């Protein structure tokens, strides 16, 4: 099995979800999947090369990713409370 | 240069986890019901964590699992808010179709074999993992893609603007 292809497939699934799904929850999940696909490479290559530095980068990347998710969820909850939207296209009302 | 080779070895522990990972990731996106979608998403994270454990990266595995638990909890809490009543459950046929598509998507990672000896990335004979990690090939490629996308976007905007100006004249 090739880990690069695995990571790319996971990335493709995330991009597919991001482009086709309009539900905010699905969009968030897609972003998480893309982040998981990207950070997977750190662990895989650190494991293949016996270099623990990759795991350090992974932990850093995952921490930042989780923080971003928390902020995005908070923003979306505020948007939902103010505008009653659950569809990502309806968020364009924020411009008004 | 990518060498295609059919790998007929019996599925190993990591292969099975990778298969579960891809299937659950796709189903998390595919399911219309938020509850099933989040359950599938959680299964994806658990299989990813087990995958890291199999790669002898225990710290990464535990960290991934801990973060996943928090993420899934938050997703469960907000799922009610982000799910509209219009969303309908998919039929059994749709679910089976989703699993089939996910299994099909997982095929390339099993049949494509990027053999180190045949991968002529460099005349110095650098291996693929070495090149990816040490030389940051992926970074360079990603930055190239970003630059190209940016250039394409600017080109489209300029073209639209010129068409608009021509229309006004």
Write the layout of secondary structure elements.
The complex is a heterodimer of chains A (96) and B (169).
Chain A: H1 3-20, H2 24-49, H3 53-83
Chain B: H1 13-30, H2 34-54, H3 58-82, H4 92-111, H5 128-134, H6 137-168
Quick take:
Chain A has 96 residues and is mainly alpha-helical. Chain A contains 3 helices and no strands.
For the terminal residues of chain A, how far apart are their CA atoms? Answer: 50 Å
Indicate the mean pLDDT of chain B: 78
Q: Please describe the biggest sheet of chain A, giving its number of strands, its sense, and whether it closes into a barrel.
A: none
Rg from alpha-carbon coordinates of chain A = 16 Å
Biggest pleated-sheet summary of chain B: none
Distance between the termini of chain B: 51 Å
Helix content of chain B: over 70%
Stretches of chain A where pLDDT is under 50 for at least 5 consecutive residues are none
Q: Please, how many domains of chain A? A: 1
CATH structural architecture of chain A: Orthogonal Bundle
